[in-house]
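Sample pair:
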Amino acid sequence: MKPWQKIVGVIVFGAIGLCELLLCFNAYLDLRYFIEPYDIQDIIDRMYLRVDSLSVALWLNYFIALALFICLWRKGGKR
């Protein structure tokens, strides 16, 4: 990889990580202020399970993409 590609990749993965953190926090805030005031415990439990599974899926996708980027980085000029 060329140096500018490495720099752009690191910046992009930092931005993606920050966006995923903001998505998770936003989902929890939505649950806290839009779902919990209705006080229906079954719906609240299901929504927390959905948000947790969404969070796990986001982070799993992020780490898989990061691992592929690291493999591409190490491969470098070896063709």
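The longest helix spans residues 41-75.
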